Amino acid sequence: MTKDYVIIKGTKNGILVQIDDSADYSEARAELEEKLVQGAEFFSGSRILLDFRDRFVENNEVAELEALLKEKFAIKEVIRYNPFEAEKAIYSAAKKPAAEKSDLKEKGLPAMIVKRTLRSGQSVNYKGDIVVLGDVNPGAEVIATGDIVVFGALRGVAHAGAEGDESCSVVALQLTPTQLRIASTIGRSPDGVRKHAKNPEMAYIKDGQLIIEDYNHNHK
Amino acid sequence: MGEVLGEVLVVTSGKGGVGKTTTTANIGTALALMGKKVVLIDSDIGLRNLDLILGLENRIVYDLVDVTEGRCRLKQALIKDKRLPNLNLLPAAQTRDKDAVNPQQMKDLCAQLKPDFDYILIDCPAGIEQGFHNAVAGADRALIVTTPEVSAVRDADRIIGKLEAAELYNPQLIINRIRVDMVNRGDMMNKDDIIEILAVDLVGMIPDDESIIVSSNKGEPIVHDENSKLGMCYRNIARRITGEEIPFSDMNMTPGLLQKLRKLLGR
What we know:
The complex is a heterodimer of chains A (220) and B (267).
Chain A: E1 6-11, E2 14-19, H1 25-38, H2 40-43, E3 47-51, H3 59-73, E4 77-80, H4 83-94, E5 112-114, E6 123-126, E7 130-132, E8 141-144, E9 148-154, E10 157-160, E11 170-175, E12 179-182, E13 185-187, E14 201-206, E15 209-214, H5 215-218
Parallel strand pairs in A: 2-3, 3-4, 5-7, 6-8, 7-9, 8-10, 9-11, 10-12
Antiparallel strand pairs in A: 1-2, 11-14, 12-13, 14-15
Chain B: E1 7-12, H1 20-33, E2 38-42, H2 50-54, H3 64-68, H4 74-77, E3 79-80, E4 87-90, H5 103-113, E5 119-123, H6 130-137, E6 141-146, H7 150-165, E7 172-178, H8 180-185, H9 191-198, E8 201-207, H10 211-218, H11 229-241, H12 257-264
Parallel strand pairs in B: 1-5, 1-6, 2-4, 2-5, 6-7, 7-8
Antiparallel strand pairs in B: 3-4
Helix pairs in contact in B: 1-11, 5-6
């Protein structure tokens, strides 16, 4: 009759409680409480991982739920489950921290994907990485605290590592910006040169200098 | 009683001085010469010019602001063209400024005109402030005028972004004041350079020519001159606007120097 919005699974990290994101939140919560009541002995003293799937839940709502679970059902620990974190934990546990130099960082945050061309006067700002599927026209701006990838022509301004992260980079199919910024370093192409790049290029900071390289040579 | 309502086209550019008013006057006249019922609205309040280009400046009794402020009926403010009875002008006010009208009033005005006309062309002022918002409020389509210069193209790009925000998609582009000799020398942007950035459909290209200045001074739109090449360009644009497919003349342009180099380098 009623669909199961709450699915409970045992995992080695604790009891995973998955709350379906298509349900009304109050309905789902009610179902959760019902299930907890039914299996009170099983849950008492346990560690619970709350997975809200794609639902957006405010931190204070989670805190409230956590308080309820601990008080009413004697649950020992409540953790908000993040699938990216879990995968990263597995990955890093399997690999020994090698001395290899890697410019790539795995981040748990999703990147912002802009699926259109940015026109003059338009600006995109994001705490994380930004991918633009289209061009960035002169007079447009892309500002990211992380990396920037433009799958098109970058003709405007790109600022990667906007909060000071010098390890960030800017990649474009056609890297011809009016100005390029990584962290606090600003670069522009030499006066008089109207470069028309033929290949994808990447810009990054090495030894304090802003370097632009053909993407395919070193980074595959 | 299936009425076909007229279409409202806004002629805009962002940059000033690229030829919006001249284009509005000439396309409007060309459409009227094709037998369409046309009204041209000058929405550049405070800096009106459309009346001059049409040679109707002495016939203005009421203007756009008189209509929106209720001092006269819309029909009273419309001025019939000297030469073509099916071409009308609604002039702007000269003693007020752009804040005298709001977008809703423009929308209502266009709605009032649509049942009686085939085409309503709105001459938009330069800029992106109140004047622009007023002009686009009642529009169904947009025509963008640019010249082959980096500053004009930059502003046109900005305007296209603003048009998209106003839900006017797929604007059509007119490239004005092309100097073929400069394009051939590689000293001027050609249409491919411009379209690469703006990414909109081209509906016309107009060469730079002294005759336009003469026609403005006389108050006689150049489309009336059957021997004029510019007149022909504007007439073709009018036909394309009504849906006819007219191929573009190549204007004796050879690929620019830069393009030649690119081809050599295998791009």
